[in-house]
Design goal:
two-stranded antiparallel sheet, ten-stranded antiparallel beta sheet
Length: 297
């Protein structure tokens, strides 16, 4: 039985004093500090605990930095939950640079970890854009350009940018990736935050994210060794520019330092968008890798 806790990070280790929390998960039998090594049900619980301890009115960054090679002091898997305030991290991408270097020892926390059964479920609110949701629910993964659409609200994306879909989510390649095989996990329902997801959607999120990890372990050898950066940006202050909930999964690249770029906030064209053909070429590579995997993550 995994134990979970939603804990405030002590000031001596916090990146934002009073606004930096973590969801911690610990198993008495599975010793790991890596998010990408957790089973799907545990990944889903991370999201459920985070949603139960925040609300959709806050600007929040939910993030798991890549673990790298330093595992000293790691006794649990951690999802960072940082409430954002105006001007707290300038440029905004500086936060990810700091998280990558943030080491919080187990001794920093004094609160007890609780059973998963004690965590409340999300209510699953109605989607604000039902017509676009209907389009997404009928999504068929396509290899023919212009044949099908996926609505990444408010944008209409060609379905050739979709690697795969599940009952509740689609996995897309990124228009302007930070690293090779930077993926987006997007709910078919048009919802703005994790607080709108229902029980089945959160469980499916865990399965889909685990599947992405499994696929990228094969596609990106450095990620198999070094892990991933995972992030959900909620609100303008957190850097959310598309009002449709999405999870970034970025394979760890030894050459990618997450060094903050002061121009990124003011120059949205710093990373040039790719062409549809470039994105589809990446999709075909990942679909092939996916086809070689066992049926379950």
């Amino acid at each position: 039985m995994w134990k979970f806790a939603f804990s405030t990070v002590p000031a001596s280790h916090a990146l934002s004093v009073g606004h930096h929390c973590v969801v911690r998960a610990l198993s008495p039998t599975i010793r790991t500090h890596r998010f990408d090594r957790c089973p799907p049900t545990v990944l889903a619980m991370f999201l459920r605990v985070a949603a139960s301890n925040t609300d959709d009115t806050l600007d929040v960054t939910f993030s798991v930095p890549p673990p790298g090679d330093d595992t000293s002091g790691a006794d649990a898997v951690m999802l960072h939950v940082i409430r954002r305030t105006y001007g707290d991290f300038v440029p905004n991408n500086r936060l990810y640079y700091l998280l990558q270097r943030c080491k919080i020892p187990a001794t920093a926390f004094t609160d007890d970890m609780g059973d998963t059964a004690a965590v409340s479920m999300c209510a699953g609110r109605d989607s604000p854009e039902s017509k676009a949701t209907e389009t997404n629910l009928q999504l068929v993964v396509s290899s023919v350009k212009g044949e099908r659409l996926f609505v990444f609200w408010p944008h209409k994306c060609d379905a050739t940018s979709v690697v795969f879909r599940s009952t509740h989510f689609a996995v897309l390649v990124n228009l302007k990736p930070v690293a090779q095989h930077h993926l987006l996990v997007v709910p078919l329902r048009i919802v703005p935050t994790i607080h709108y997801l229902n029980h089945d959607e959160i469980e499916d999120w865990g399965v889909v994210v685990a599947r992405c990890f499994q696929m990228l372990h094969r596609a990106v050898p450095s990620a198999a060794a070094r892990g991933f950066a995972v992030a959900i940006q909620q609100g303008k202050l957190a850097g959310q520019t598309v009002p449709h909930l999405h999870t970034h999964i970025i394979p760890s690249d030894p050459a990618l330092t997450m060094e903050p770029d002061p121009d990124e906030d003011t120059n949205p064209n710093l990373r040039k968008p790719r062409t549809g053909d470039e994105m589809f070429a990446e999709v075909l590579v990942l679909r092939h890798v996916l086809s070689t995997l066992p049926s379950e993550p």
